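Hey,

The postdoc asked me to send both predictions to you directly instead of through the lab channel. I've kept everything plain text so nothing gets mangled by the mail client. Protein one:
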Amino acid sequence: MTQSPHVVVIGAGTLGMCTAYNLAKQGARVTVLDANAVASGSSGRSVGVIGTQFTDLFEIQLRQHSMRQFREFETFGLNINRIGYLRLARTSEQMDLFAQSVLMQQEAGFRSRLYQADQLKEIVPHISTEGLAGSIFGPDDGFIDPHELCMLLAEKVKEAGNVVRQFCKLEKVDRVASGYQLQTSKGLVECDIVVNAAGAWAPQVAELFGQTLHVKPERHEAITIQLDEPLSYTMPMVMDLVNGEGTGLNFRHEKPSELIAEVHKVTSLEPENPDHYNDQCDEASKIDLAELLLERVPELPGARLGRGWAGLYPMTHDKRPFVGPIDASEPSLITAAGAGGYGIQLSPVIGQLAADWVLQGEPQSFPEALQLKPTADRNISG
């Protein structure tokens, strides 16, 4: 490898731009290629939540690394709307897990606390507590605009003398002694190393390199909730899902008289074609979402459904991202994909780990993340 390797990052969403930023920061020469515009895929359709309210230590540690970089991105001008994150519990067993989470988060430097069911209206006055045991609440969590993040990082990457090429589709790959020759819709690009951060298109990119990547694009829908008058408080992110249990309903403040809601579950297990999928919210989904909202927040003032849209969650079989080489015999091709519905909040740490693999050959900044490597026993179809 040359002293300053030329790395091509394929994909200009949050994973790709965080990877490019971490590489550029460490002195690599970087070219980002995207078949469309920056943040035009899943990143641009995300509701942008970043949070730490998880019950698994490794998941909290991942977010510890991510939040450290998010604080750095704030110094660039990224706006983090710290409205808080409320994860609901339906059983005493889930509350026990939340109690353990509070301790793990405290060790990681995060603030959180438990609320019993009869205390929930202190945070969300309109909430119905029927069927709930309580919750865990992180006051410092919130949401970002993923497009804003990608554009900020693109500027940082370019300021360091690197290149971001939009509407530049990868068409053909040739391996050469020095690395790769990439034929694109805008000409030939030569490089030492490639990072596949193409999101829902990552399997197609892998195929051009002769590899098989099992990342399944799942279709998810979001919709705005219009209110007749502003709430007297800021609605935090509310999530009804604990380790796969719950309705999957989540909603949050967007504007004084507007919420955004989605369901963090899918009804269809069939993978979507990212080039040809329905990017609008189905009427049946709107009805299901409205019923879930009526159950949990039944008396919102004049609540009615607004515009809706659909995006794709790139999912792995075990629902954890792939970061590292698929094939040990080809360490110069790194995969950073499959972050599912947590791609925005994990993008900084995934970018950090992908840069580690490129420059160090292993995840040195967070050795425990070796478990995210797309090994044969993980890279399987769901």
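Protein two:
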Amino acid sequence: MLTLRPATPSDVPHILAFIRELAEYEREPDAVLATEADLLRDGFTEPRRFHCLMAEWDGTPVGFALYFYNYSTWEGRPGIYLEDLFVRPDYRGKGIGKALLIKVAAIAVAEGCARFEWSVLDWNQPSIDFYHAMGAVMKSEWRGMRVDGQALKNLAKECVTEEVTK
């Protein structure tokens, strides 16, 4: 029997395990730097940086959806970005991923969000097909950009802290 519920601090070890399993599935097993302390701080204290839903099958944690709010300046309304959606392989095909997506969509609607979006790896055809079946549309005209690590620190060094006058 499937149960979806908001994550609690006691779920943090499961959340981190799911994140690591997802990274392995996405061929980046050594990329996870997050710790339990990071997840506790950012998901369960103010200001909350993310929200998380847990999926349990007969009381056993089997998946999660981790999301956060963003903002559409064009719509003038918030949106939700799904950072991670994961269901353990032995529990796939039972409607758990679909139930998690539907629940986050329901949260987005209840919160007055203009959109619900996420990213998918271009080689992950099973997920792409699944998302298309859920009504998602691939954004082909937009490309994701990222600055992280040392490049982020270097960019931040360019910050002008005093007002520039002419």
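Summary for protein two, as requested: The longest helix spans residues 96-110.

Thanks,
C.
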